[in-house]
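Please produce the structure of this protein holding pyridoxal-5'-phosphate.
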Amino acid sequence: MHNNILDQLTDYPFDRLRALLRNVEPPAGRPQIHMQIGEPNHPAPDFIGPVLVENMADWGCYPPPNGPDTLRAAIAEWLAKRYDLPAGMIDPARNIAVVSGTREALFMAALLTVPEQKAGAKPIVLMPNPFYQVYVGAAAMARAETVLLPAGPETGFQPDFASVDPAILERTALAYLNSPANPQGSIADLTMLEAAVELARRYDFVLAVDECYSEIYTADPPPGGLSACAKIADGSAEMCRNVLVFHSLSKRSNVPGLRSGFVAGDAHLIALLLRLRQYGGAQLPLPVMNASEALWRDETHVEQSRTLYREKFDLALEILDGVFGATRPGGAFYLWLDVGDGETAAERLWREAGVRVLPGEYLAQTDASGSNPGRSYIRAALVHDIETTRDALNRIRETLEP
Ligand SMILES: Cc1ncc(COP(=O)(O)O)c(C=O)c1O
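Below is the modeled complex.
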């Protein structure tokens, strides 16, 4: 006996990759380079070591479910500064939920928002295609219908909410938006974010903006869901109505193992999320919360990391100049390369060059027209040091160039 919806979920992309490469031997005597996973290899800021050690006694306590006030205050200050928000818009007591990484929180967003019915029918969850895999699993487990919005070159690699049929919007309970996007690195501009917020309010659905790559960008800092709420400022006491944003320390601060992030936005939804987490969420250990506070209060390490990513994209464009449609993304740290057939390319790269990348089709679903928008792509994460990255990029070019 089990929940039969689990049978509908495909294996996770990394499991599919393991299965694809199970019998493929990489070349002997060449160091393997793993670019399939978005796990930053830049050093974690060493100032968190002493914070973890100083707070050793706290491992003996159940942590407060929503963290100490000092952590939420640091987050509120960070948000206000980063997105230039009006004073008081984010109240650390009402508008912030501390979460153990955003993956779980993005999953819970569907449990939080999807009712039994909307507009007398099965509720819908909108999401971009390609997407972050969790959105699909969350929608399915919440018993919603998934509607995929194309996010390929024809729409600037972001979904076009304006083109969604009003009959679909009536039934929409939740819409995921990811900016900068994984895997394409595209950015939703302020106009698009405002339009999405307005639609969410008009049709009463929740807009969940996944901003976990917000600090890794090429030119100007990308706007976020809260920038749009501040811009709209319609005089309502709840400025974040219908909107939740998701932020993580994993990519910003190179600490994916710390499992630390937050959700901010609509106070009513935050209260319900905290209730849901009381039942099914893990609190962050107190030493981790204190280390998180120190990380949100420091920008130096974030700037250093951003510079390193920019240097790696400079290098990528130099080495992959004119091939595989390589472009500098607005943000995030992925190369999204059009190689013709992503699975074949991933297999060849592993067999011939010892470089592991993810086939793009594992990050997307076949759409109504029968095509998978990720099929011709591979995703390579530029998460290593510059010399390893140079080596990997040269191997990719040598192996795949026709
Ligand atoms: C788009 C996107 N959202 C959310 C996450 C989850 O990050 P974390 O759970 O480490 O905060 C990831 C991780 O790869 C991601 O790529």
